[in-house]
Amino acid sequence: MFYSNSVRNPLQEKLAFELGEISGYPDYHAFFVNSGAEANENALKLASFHTGKKRVIAFRKAFHGRTSAAVEVTDNSRITAPINENQHVYFANPDLEEVACELQKGDVCAVIIEGISGVGGIQVPSDDFLIGLREMTQRHHVVLILDEIQSGYGRTGRFFAHQWAGIRPDLITVAKGIANGFPFSALLVSEAFSAQKGMLGTTFGGNHLGCAAALSVIQILREEHLIENALQTGTYLKNKLSSLASPLIREVRGRGLMLGIEFSVPVAGIREALLFEHHIFTGFSGNNVLRILPPLCVSAQEADRFAEAIESVLKKEGRQDGTKR
Ligand SMILES: Cc1ncc(COP(=O)(O)O)c(C=O)c1O
């Protein structure tokens, strides 16, 4: 895992090239680190270096990690310690006028937003909102950071979720699937940024083993057409879930294999029944949202099995009638 940083690692160069090609960002630089939070820390730091400013606009319910700047732009007071409360951040609603008001103050270095807000309950920013944000940040010379740590790497059927809106951010952060479970992450940096020696650094980031794992992931994504599968099977699953005629389902939302089902009742009992009766493990957000992020290789048969399991849980527990457990 470790070799002196004084020695060039050719796997880093190969990975930067392959990641640029597969993601549609061949002209961006890559900086490899170890975790999602670390990628966001470096993105925020780079934005601040670049603009000489220190205020950030983040969004309500955002999650960007648990370390100092990353947790400060995370909208969750339970995981923010007093040492992280440095008044750098304004939490906006997804409202372009509100963002414009803050940008006009002239002291903002970055706007950070998730491609799709995951922990916040699978909230998909509209294409128009992302396009407006891009246009506005460009006009104010503010860095736009897209956190694609949960929504990227093919999950939504495009390499990055923001590519559905056709925008190009200044900085993009990726982690999670990048090395299929091996601790690894990356910051993609537009060519508008000039690197200076020592500006960013890391001891273990971009190590040989991580690079080899990340290169294998890209190879498998291509060979097994997993991004296409995320779109196809994700759309199939979303349609199936949307057609479940349960009054307890308020909304099915998301893109590709990043789906959320919002219920009118708490999901704790539903998750428990899915796990113990059907052996299906699901995520959640808040009290009422099931978070569904299966592996990108999930099949249509497995999607059927999941939809049938949800249907049977809702029926069995009397939830079809609105009876609470
Ligand atoms: C959108 C998003 N950003 C950042 C992070 C932090 O990543 P890590 O836990 O690797 O630091 C996460 C983790 O869940 C995430 O979902």
What does this protein look like?
With 325 residues, the protein is an alpha/beta fold. The chain has 2 domains: 214 residues, Type I PLP-dependent aspartate aminotransferase-like (Major domain) (Aspartate Aminotransferase, domain 2, 3-Layer(aba) Sandwich), CATH 3.40.640; 94 residues, Aspartate Aminotransferase, domain 1 (Alpha-Beta Complex). The chain contains 9 helices and 11 strands. The chain has a 7-stranded mixed β-sheet with strand order 1-7-6-5-4-2-3, with helices on both faces. Strands 8-9-11-10 form a 4-stranded antiparallel β-sheet, covered by helices on one side. β2, α3 and β3 form a beta-alpha-beta unit. α4 runs parallel beside α5 and α8 packs across α9. The protein is globular and about 60 Å long. The C terminus is likely disordered.
Unique ligands: pyridoxal-5'-phosphate
For the record, the CATH architecture of the largest domain stands as: 3-Layer(aba) Sandwich
What name does CATH use for the topology of the largest domain? Answer: Aspartate Aminotransferase, domain 2
CATH top level label of the largest domain = Alpha Beta
Spans of at least 5 consecutive residues whose pLDDT stays below 50 are 319-325
Average pLDDT metric: 95
> CA-to-CA gap between the ends?
50 Å
Structural class: alpha/beta
User: Which oligomeric state applies?
Assistant: single chain
> What is the CATH homology-level superfamily of the largest domain?
Type I PLP-dependent aspartate aminotransferase-like (Major domain)
* Domain tally: 2
Question: Approximately what portion of the residues adopt beta-strand conformation?
Answer: 15-25%
Please count the helical segments. Answer: 9
Using the alpha-carbon principal axes, give the shape: globular
